[in-house]
Design goal:
Length: about 110
């Protein structure tokens, strides 16, 4: 059974930083590309960042480019998203995703 468990969300002031983690199990983690997707209140889902199996290829949405960094540790079955210079518009539930499988999400709130 595929399981994805996100952690690291919380409340942070504008300009602050957070690091999200996703721990995966139930499949061969290193064989699949992974991504982070977010959904803000009242809005559709947005692909934030994606990373290839060996980390050689990464993708960032224009809205987060230069502020967010996606990474993975295949030995630990862990996907991470380091978020810096956070803005109120980054407020959303952040999901770890592999194919059709999603985690439960972790809330990120950026507010003063």
């Amino acid at each position: 059974e595929v399981q994805l468990v996100e952690s690291g969300g919380g409340l942070v002031e504008p300009g602050g930083s957070l690091k999200l983690s996703c721990t995966a199990s139930g499949f061969t983690f290193g064989h699949y590309g992974m991504s982070w997707v977010r959904q803000a209140p009242g809005k559709g889902r947005e692909l934030v960042a994606a990373i290839s199996t060996g980390s050689s290829k990464v993708y960032y949405a224009d809205s987060v480019k230069g502020r967010f960094t996606i990474s993975r540790d295949n030995a630990k079955n862990t996907l991470s998203l380091e978020m810096n210079s956070l803005k109120p518009e980054d407020t959303a539930v952040y999901y770890c995703r592999i194919g059709a499988y999603w985690g439960q999400g972790t809330q990120v709130t950026v507010s003063s």
